[in-house]
Amino acid sequence: MEGMLALAADNLLSPIILFFALGVLAAFARSDLSIPEAIAKGMSIYLLFAIGFKGGAAVADNGIDATLILSLVAGLVLSFAIPMVAFALLRVMTGLSVVDAAAVAGHYGSISIVTFVAATSVVQGAGLDSEGYMVAVAAVMEAPAILSALWLIARFDKGTAQMDAGLMREILLNGSIVLLVGSFLIGVITGSEGLDLIAPFIVTPFQGVLCLFLLDMGLVAGRGLREARGVLKPGLFLFGVVMPVVGSVFGLLAGVLLGLSPGGIVLFMTLSASASYIAVPAAMRVALPEANPSIYLTLSLGVTFPFNLTLGIPLYLAVASFVTGG
Question: Which CATH number fits domain 36-323: 1.20.1530.20, 1.25.60.10, 1.10.10.10, 1.20.1250.20?
Answer without folding.
Answer: 1.20.1530.20
